[in-house]
Specification:
- The complex is a heterodimer of chains A (446) and B (345).
- Chain A is 63% helix and 5% strand.
- By secondary structure, chain A is mostly helical.
- In chain A, strands 2-1-3 form a three-stranded antiparallel sheet.
- The longest helix of chain A is centred in the first third of the chain and has 43 residues.
- With 345 residues, chain B is α/β, with parallel strands linked by helices.
- Chain B is globular, with a radius of gyration of 23 Å.
- Classes of the chains: A mainly alpha (446), B alpha/beta (345).
- Chains A and B meet through helix 9, helix 12, helix 15, helix 17 and strand 4 of A and helix 1, helix 2, strand 2 and helix 11 of B.
- Strand 4 of chain A pairs antiparallel with strand 2 of chain B.
Chain lengths: 446, 345
């Protein structure tokens, strides 16, 4: 019965067979051999699908683990602990002559006063080992007094940054059950911390220093803003150079250049350049911009130029692909109604290719933002306390800052490193989202 | 249309980017050793705080050798003003400096460092001598190929643990110090080697300082935190680095006593610890009048509250030089007396 059914309903294949009737073997779908073959096929199908799923899950797991450890270590970097101290701006301790404040040298007198001594005195009143505030805490006293000179001789309550160990204690980064030697923090610090905590002189809150300042050798005073600004300045130079040059090169190659050996050679070179390791561009930048043109070391200008060289081929390739994807009928139609070639390019081809060009550019920029190796060679691996003032002032960039902090001896920099990575990842995420948004916004289907 | 705007913005950027740099450098530039880097950056920061009228010095970590090369490339705003060094400058380097016009070099000994060999807190390595280290790590100890697999092979008193030591790369000043303080000392215990030093110095150097390449000595790069992490993960490994890293990570690692002496502040300061080494800052005297704040920076560096026993650098792991040396160097910092090339060998 079964075999009869198969014979009356021939498969597609059977119909296309040349008519050698009777000679062809009937497919017996119910035979054990065929059944096991079918099962094997389904099994292979399922295995393939699950392998793919497993690969995806594994990748997701790694990514999840990376994000989890970074966020776990880093989120506390956005918090800081302050200590409340009561400061009496005593002119004797400050070594300021109150009479000098009426003279034109008042600003200088206020600036050079001995605030460190004042801070030591104020912290001494807290009791304990009297070593609880940051080395740079006295800067706040100078700021306060410079802002309001009438404070001289008066007493004021000020919140100042705690030193790194106190900050880490407040965040629970030490295992207090361990003995002093293996705990990583001295008994003095622990007793100071408990004492301050009981008296309510500690507060942990948003770390304003981290988001507004530049690098520091004290983890509690280190900030990411200097590096972020350095990255911004560097990327401005990079995009300002590589975008127009890259897009113009792509337009010329796609729309105007004749097809011959030379353009082939250029095409191969561009593809090659896109694959060159970034450190080579660093060596090039060192040789050309620093040694030949004598540009300043560690400057965002040089960093931007070097990264522009690196990004240029990426933009050229992405733009060429985008321009190539514009249907020739659009060009023909435009030319047919009398547009000049320039009008065709700027009024029709570019607007249609723009989503592809912009996506390529932003991805190239995101790569430039995360690049470290070439910048090390041109001196951007530097300790810079001032936030950069312009394209030529020394600066460092986000990934280099991560690298520098990860190399620091002090324990407080562990969380700062992860926090800096979070900042970098958020910026990358924003840039990539922008790429997707632009693509969807400008994309045209036909 | 926004394309026009884009073109406009881009072309402005292009002009900005291409305008030639003309500004003269105003800030102090320091390059050099990664061992001295944390101390010099701390001084740079303090200098900026107390002297807000000067721009903050820029400190770059390039390694001692690379730093001295940059430092000696010439006189002028393109070249660094100071170099951190975790070893003394060599006579050949001074000569190279001179050839490029760098004739006045001020030498400041900023402090001491103990080059320690460390192990995980979980490990229990009894102690080493320089000969043990030399025999375990040299490519050809006393001229014969190195066949030692475990520490027990080197010295029967030591445990039967596979020899695995993480150490600095050849570009690092720490490696030079490791050569001087461990390998050469261990090598010179052999009379034949001492004789060889006189007859054929190149061969002597090669036998004494060439390290194994079969995995017993692992170059760990300049990142000392990485060594700390690896050591705490693997109790059978040893690592070589400066005292400041040891001190900061005492909860994870401890030192292996050398000749029975442990790496403590007191032992390093008194030179009782065999691997104590001085750290230096070299300053280009010809730049002092051209770059604002260099003199003040040197004064800041040489204050007792900076490099003294209770100074802020000692909190960061620098071991203060002996009192007399500090006094002499503070004097040099104030007067700017230049180094006599003849005093270097």
């Amino acid at each position: 019965m079964n075999s009869a059914l198969t014979s009356t309903a021939p498969t597609d294949g059977a119909e296309r067979q040349p008519a050698v009737a009777g000679k062809r073997l009937q497919t017996d779908w119910s035979s054990p051999a065929m059944r096991s073959r079918v099962r094997a096929r389904y099994r292979a199908e399922a295995t393939f699908r699950y392998t793919g799923l497993a690969a995806l899950l594994l990748a997701a797991l790694f990514l999840g683990f990376l994000l989890f450890t970074i966020v776990r270590d880093g989120w506390t970097g956005f918090q800081s602990t302050d200590v409340k101290v009561s400061v009496t701006y005593d002119p004797a301790t400050l070594m300021i002559d109150p009479a000098a404040l009426k003279t034109p040298e008042a600003a200088q007198a206020l600036r050079s006063a001995d605030y460190a001594a004042l801070m030591i005195e104020a912290v001494g009143q807290l009791g304990g080992a009297a070593d609880v505030v940051s080395e740079g805490a006295w800067l706040i006293l100078r700021e306060n007094l410079e802002a309001d000179p009438t404070l001289l001789g008066k007493t004021q309550s000020v919140w100042v940054p705690a030193k790194s160990n106190i900050d880490l204690l407040a965040k629970g980064k030490f295992d207090l059950a361990e003995p002093e030697l293996t705990r990583g923090v001295s008994d003095d610090d622990v007793s100071d911390y408990t004492q301050l905590k009981q008296r309510g002189l500690l507060r942990t809150g948003f770390n304003r220093i981290f988001v507004t300042m530049a690098d520091s050798t004290n983890p509690e005073l280190a900030g990411i803003w200097g590096a972020a600004l350095g990255s911004l300045l560097t990327l401005l130079i990079t995009i300002g150079l590589s975008f127009p040059i890259g897009v113009m090169a792509a337009i010329y190659l796609e729309e105007f250049a004749p097809r011959n050996r030379w353009t082939d050679l250029i095409e191969v070179s561009i593809n090659n350049l896109a694959a060159v390791p970034s450190i080579i561009f660093g060596l090039l930048g060192l040789a050309v911009f620093l040694n030949f043109f004598g540009m300043p070391r560690s400057a965002p200008l040089v960093g931007g130029l070097t990264l522009a060289l690196m990004t240029l081929p990426v933009i050229v390739i992405a733009s060429r692909v985008a321009i190539k994807a514009v249907p020739p009928s659009i060009r023909d139609a435009a030319l047919g109604i009398g547009s000049s070639p320039i009008q065709v390019v700027f009024q029709h081809v570019i607007p249609m290719a723009l989503p592809g060009i912009l996506t390529g550019t932003i991805i190239g920029m995101a790569r430039a933002l995360g690049e470290t190796a070439p910048l090390l060679l041109i001196g951007m691996r530097a300790f810079v306390v001032d936030t950069p003032q312009g394209f030529e002032s020394p600066a460092t960039v986000l990934p280099v800052q991560v690298f520098l902090w990860s190399d620091d001896v002090q324990r407080g920099f562990i969380e700062k490193t992860s926090a800096a990575i979070i900042v970098l990842l958020v910026i990358l995420l924003l840039m990539n989202s922008l790429a997707i948004y632009l693509r969807n916004k400008f994309e045209r289907r036909w | 249309m926004n394309i026009k705007l884009l073109t406009l913005v881009s072309s402005t950027m292009l002009t900005v980017a291409c305008s030639a740099p003309s500004e003269a450098r105003t800030q102090i530039r320091i390059v050099g050793s990664s061992t001295v880097y944390p101390f010099t950056t701390a001084v740079a920061e303090q200098f900026k705080r107390t002297n807000p009228q000067f721009p903050a010095p820029i400190v770059e970590s390039t390694g001692t050798g690379g730093g001295i090369k940059l430092f000696c490339s010439g006189v002028g705003e393109k070249f660094p003003d100071m170099v951190n060094a975790s070893r003394r400058i060599k006579a050949s380097e001074v000569a190279g400096c001179k050839a490029k016009g760098v004739t006045g070099i001020i030498e400041l000994q900023v402090g001491l460092d103990g080059l320690s060999i460390a192990q995980s807190r979980k490990a229990n390595f009894p102690g080493l001598s320089e000969v043990d280290v030399y025999k375990a790590l040299a490519a050809a100890p006393f001229g014969k190929p190195n066949t030692y697999r475990t520490w027990k092979d080197v010295n029967p008193r030591l445990p039967a643990i596979k020899i695995e030591v993480l150490g600095p790369p050849p570009t690092s000043g720490t490696r030079d110090a490791f050569n001087d303080l461990y390998l050469l000392k261990g090598c010179e215990t052999n009379a034949a080697m001492v004789a060889l030093k006189k007859s054929n110095e190149d061969k002597f150097k090669n036998i004494c300082t060439k390290l194994r390449e079969d995995g017993a000595f692992i170059e760990a790069g300049e990142n000392d935190n990485l060594i700390v992490q690896k050591l705490s993960a693997n109790p059978n490994m040893l690592g070589v680095f400066g005292y400041s890293y040891l001190e900061e990570n005492l909860d994870k690692i401890k030192d292996v006593p050398i000749n029975g002496v442990t790496a403590t502040y007191a032992n390093i300061a008194s030179f009782k610890y065999p691997a104590s080494r001085p750290l230096y800052l070299y300053v280009k005297a010809q730049h002092i009048r051209a770059i604002r704040g260099m003199k003040e920076f040197l004064v800041e560096y040489s204050k007792e509250s900076t490099w003294g026993r209770q100074g802020y650098l000692s909190k960061r792991g620098l071991v203060a030089s002996p009192d007399a040396a500090r006094k002499r160097n503070a004097q040099i910092a104030r007067t700017g007396a230049v180094l006599n090339p003849a005093s270097i060998h």
